[in-house]
Amino acid sequence: MDQRLTELERKISYQDKLLHELNEVIFILSKRLDQLESRQKTMNDQLASGNIVKRQEDETPPPHY
To answer: pTM value?
Structure first.
C-alpha cells in the first residue's frame, strides 16, 4: 500500500511540473500571438491608407545617380 501511495505521489508531482511548464508555454505563445495580431493590424492599416509605399520624392536616390 505504501509503495502504491508513493507511486501516486510521484505521478502527481510529475503532472504538476508538466502542467506548470505547459502554462508557461501557453503564456509565452499568447504574448507572441498578441504581438503578431498587433503587427498585422498595423500593416492592414498602412495598406488601407496607402502608406505602405513611399512616394518617389521621399525616396533617397541610389548612389549611382
So the answer is: 0.65
